[in-house]
Amino acid sequence: MTINIYVIRNRLPQEIASLESEARREGYRHITRLIQEWSAGETRFEYEGERLLGAYVGEALAGVGGMTLEPAAVEALRMRRFYVHPAMRGRGVGRSLALTLLDHARSFCSLVTVYAGNGGAAKFWESVGFQPCGRDGHTHVLEL
Known about the structure:
Helix content is about 30%, strand content about 30%. It is of the alpha+beta class.
């Protein structure tokens, strides 16, 4: 299975609607917030170091993940709005998104934070090198 990672700029892909639907079905609202904040112009992942990525398997948007400035720490970035379609989990989509963003982050900062919303997310972030650290609104940190 080939995973292609693309930077999302200017507009969200149409396929984000199906990811949002899946996320809502699972009880997650962060993709809804991504769409709302993007539409309102509040968060567009456009500041220095910020980035939003889409992971595609074939023509299908299999997942999204982003990185914004970390408001609680100087010269740090925060992983945000990560979601992988349930049918694509365990196939390397999330890992590809995370590692691509971390590689990008190395040019901009020495610390990346994330808020893992559940135990499965915590295990995932720890598998890519993050360490538990519950403070300042995040659950994990990674020193680059």
